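Lab notebook: predicted structure, single chain.

Context: the supervisor wants predicted structures on file for every construct in the current expression panel, including those that have not yet been purified. This is the next one on the list. No modifications to the sequence; it matches the entry in the shared construct table.
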Amino acid sequence: MSKLRPIRCLITAGPTREWLDPVRFITNPSSGKMGYAIAEAARDIGWAVELVSGPVALAAPDGVTREMVVTGEDMLSAVQQRFPACDVLIKTAAVCDMRPRQRDDHKVKKRDMAWTVEFEPTADILKTVAASKRADQLVVGFAAETQDVEAYARKKLTEKNLDFICANSVAVGGAFESDCNEILLIGVNGETSKLGPASKIEVARLLISHLADFLDLV
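Prediction complete. Output recorded below exactly as produced.
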């Protein structure tokens, strides 16, 4: 990485929404707190930070360029536009894995509802983007799981062409909507680091410090 300019860091955060009709959607409990904390930590060490965020009730961090998106397709487009120019991608967003196959243009009345909904998969943003990763780019993913957290994380690390993955539990009492987190950071070469349990702000600082140290070595 060039020492003559700030590291350019792209971060995704929060949930996405997939619409059934203009007033109903499916989503998940992601608050965006982890991604926003990482954006602040990266900014604080002098990185130039861009944040692509799903719908959250959080203010844009000072000094961070933010784009708000809603659907997985919106987020994929925003990330693809920015990825070629970034040095580090950290994808914390909890993207809906599915969307209704049919989206109605108008609110469906209760009497007209179909009580069985057919879904189709959404794009795997991380896998799609990381497939074009250059040797000088670092890609970090998050694995939010309710069981066998480390095993699933290691599988995603290799399947999605990542450099690091942050394994964290979103079982009852886990990371979703909490102010605290505990991460197992796993590198593609097999190295591991436990970050937390601590506040998401502190975990974010530890993560960015680890990545900064790694970038100094490559």
